[in-house]
Amino acid sequence: QVQLAESGGGLVQTGGSLRLSCAASGRPFSSNAMGWFRQAPGKEREFVAAINWSGRNTAYADSVKGRFTISRDNAQNMLYLQMNSLKPEDTAVYYCAASVVAGIPLGSDRIRRYEYWGQGTQVTVSS
User: Which SS3 state, helix, strand or coil, does residue 109 take?
Assistant: First the structure.
């Protein structure tokens, strides 16, 4: 059974840092692009960051560019999101996802290219 399990969320003050982890099990994802998404209360799930199969290419939402860093360890089947300089508007449930393609999905409907999803981890940034 394929599972993605996020961890590392929590409560942090404005300007603080958190590192999210996503452990994949059930099958390797070393040939798949992976990504992080987030969903705040009353809002749609939105793209945060993505990384291609090898880790050489990354993409970020404008709102997190320069503050968040996505990385992966294919040997360990792990995905990470380092979040620095956190802001209250970063408060959301964060989800990791595995794509059906090797390259980073692009476009407004990119979320449709992600087949596997974790249950999410809550990140709360206090002002």
Answer: coil
For residues 72 and 30, what is the distance between their CA atoms, to the nearest angstrom? 9
- Interval 62-97: pLDDT, tens: 999 999 999 999 999 999 999 999 999 999 999 999
Placement of tokens 């992966």 in the chain: 72
Write the single-letter amino acid at 117. W
Answer yes or no: are the C-beta atoms of 95 and 39 closer than 8 Å: yes
Identify the three-state secondary structure at position 102. Answer: coil
**Residue 111 — φ and ψ, nearest 5°?**
-60, -25
Residue 104 to residue 102: CA distance in whole angstroms = 7
CA angle 56, 58, 60 (to 5 degrees): 170
